[in-house]
Amino acid sequence: MSKNLIYISLLRNYLRANLPSNHFEGLINLVSINLGFNSFNGNVPSSILKLPCLRELKLPHNNLSGILGEFHNASSPLLEILDLSNNYLQGPIPLSIFNLPTLRFIQLSFNKFNGTIKLDAIRRLSNLTILGLSYNNLFIDVNFEDDHNMSSFPKLRGPGFEESFSNFSSNLNSVDLSFNNLQGPISLVSKYATYLDYSSNKFSSIIPPDIGNHLPYIIFLFLSINKFQGQIHDSFCNASSLRLLDLSHNNFVRTILKCFAALSSSLRMLNFEVIFQMVCFKIHVH
């Protein structure tokens, strides 16, 4: 390839081949790679992860497999968009990803990643707007390291979200952690989020009493298929931007809040299916 290449896009060409590492060596001016929606297989070439000027790496919907290597330009990063979704990548998510402060978009859903992600590492990404880690086999460690870079973040206390709202960038507006092995208290919550999906995990903590008061911009909230129990608090009704709320397939012990009727003008779907023992119903608000 020409050493002067700046952009490579082979999107939706039904290509089927390995991605040889030597094809990307020496492309020091390359800014964007988009090879999405093909049938490329093999590993993600290590040479791609070393490109010094790369801002966009998009390899979604291929057949890439193996362990994703570390990014080698973490000392002077430029990468803003990382999309490796819908592949067969496995092993731990490289820690170097969380040392790339310019990242705005991370989409690693629908792979076979496993292991533990540290919550404080995610919080370092102050420019992050979208985080997609669904359909993997991940755990999240909510404990903080004694790191001077994290001194501004209070440690989590108590059984829920309450200490986490102020600790995320105001840019983070979409988080999808569905279909993993997350359990215990939910701790990854952004006050400014419009989309949060924690469905199909093993969360069991009681939702904190005032969660609705801390999500003023939330539009889509998915908490279904977990192990939540206790009361559904009426602060949900204070989330005035809410359009879809799914609390189904949990073990709550309270009847439906009457205040949901007040949201009927804005709420488009409210799902309580199998939410209580001995009760099974679903409500659609039109």
TrEMBL record:
It comes from the Eukaryota. It holds the Pfam family LRR_1. The lineage of its organism: Eukaryota, Viridiplantae, Streptophyta, Embryophyta, Tracheophyta. This is Putative leucine-rich repeat domain, L domain-containing protein.
